[in-house]
Every structure is written in structure tokens, then in C-alpha cells.
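Dear colleague,

Thank you for sharing your sequence with our group. We've completed the structure prediction you requested, and as agreed, I am returning the results in plain text so they can be pasted directly into your records. Please verify that the sequence below matches your submission; if there's any discrepancy, let me know and we will rerun it promptly.
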Amino acid sequence: MNPASQGAELEEGLDFQRIDSSRGDGQAQLAALQKLLASTGPKGATPLTSQVAKIRQRITQEGRDLARAGQKIVFVMATDGLPSGMYGRGGAEAQREFVDELWHLSSELPIHLVVRLCTDEDDIVDFYNGIDENLELQLEVIDDICAEAKECARVGNRWLTYSPIIHRLREGGTFLKLFDLLDERELEPMEVCLLSQYILREAVADRPVSTKPDEFLQQVQSRLPQLRSVFDPLLKKMVPPLIYKELDWALKPKSAMQRECGTQFCKTCLQQ
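Please find the predicted C-alpha cells below.
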């Protein structure tokens, strides 16, 4: 974000490091990246627009080749601030310029954008969430793990334990749209079954789980004890990756297993 070269173009070794085993020793390249990261850090302004423009310029030709091959670029941006110029100029104009650059990036390249927020300041969170909600971009905004877990529960997806591995998948960028929807809306029963398949099937050879609610729930009961527990960031303890009671509620909301409380999110219900 605040490169040492200060040039018009990104310079390898100063501004970025490529890890590509076809270009030589992968371990040496990884060591060079670690050295680069250790020698720099967040400081000064937040020139997101100019840096994104440089990256767009560098990957344009490669992006066309990927499009021909039916592939996509995953662009992960970690930031703790609002976009500004190189000398700290911010405000509405700098924010509009940044949004325009994102439009260019999204429209010109086969790309999936992920914004990893490294702050809990409301104005910054609201700005990036506003972009995600109001613009037709391939963009996912990811907050810290606790905030994302609370949001998933708030919209109604309480059947899934929002574990660190789920969070890492979303932070790194995934083309499975269901993962993007987890914090946006309550998943439909068929979507719940589909996403649960990825968790219940530990190996490719495992048989698919039925999509019929009763059969699905029976199979979940039989397979859950065989799965490893995961860390729940809200309960602060190891729990099953799927919550059976909440699955029953998600697939059969008029069943006898209704929640006693009327709230959308309640730790007490999750612990029962």
C-alpha cells in the first residue's frame, strides 16, 4: 500500500513478490516474500485508488489469458482505512475515485474482489459494506471472525458453526456463492443441504447426503459424531461443525423443535 519504489509502476522485489514454482525455487521465493513483508508495514496515507490502478495495469494482459481459459483472478485487499491520495487527501471525492477504479477492475477483468477489514470503526465498515450492497460488483467484504459469526447468526444461519476454516475460506476468496450469502440472508432449505454437503463429506468418495429433510437429518445425526469439532468464536469452545437442532429448524421451521426464546440470536439456545 505504501511501496518503497514510489514509481509509476509496481516493481517486483520492492512492491510485490511473485510465488510461482515454474519460475524456480519456490522456497526461495517464499523467503523473499517474508523478507519483503518484514521490511514494511502499514503507515502514512491509504492510496488505495492509485495502487489498485497499478495492479490493474499489471494484470490486464494476464487477465485476458485467464478469461480465455475460463479462469478468474482473486484479488484480496486488506485495509484499515478509507481511500485517500498519496498525501492523505480523503473525503467524498477520493472515495468516488476509488469506487470508479473498482468498477474498471471488475468490468475489464475476470476478477473476484475480497475486502478484508482490519478495523471496527463504524464509518469505515459502513463505507465498504455500502459498496458491497449497492453496486453490482463481484465483491465480498469480510470483517473479523466474531463480527462475521454474529452476522451469520443474526440473518438466520445458526445451523452452521462459523469456524476459523470457514472464515479463512471467505477471506481468501471463494467462487461458491453460498459462502458469500452466509452473512447476507437466511439460506433456503435446499441451500442449507448443499452447503452442509461440503462439511459432511470429508472425502470425495463419501456418498452424497440426501436432500429430503427427514433423510438428511438422519444422515447428519449418524455422520456428525465422526467429524472433528471446530472452534466457535462466539461460544469460545469446540463444538460440532453443524448444529443439529438448528438444522432441524432451518429445514422444518414448523417442527416441535422451536426455540423457546423469540430472538434471532441467543447463545443460550446454541448451548442447549
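Summary note from our side: The longest strand covers residues 73-79.

Kind regards,
the structure core
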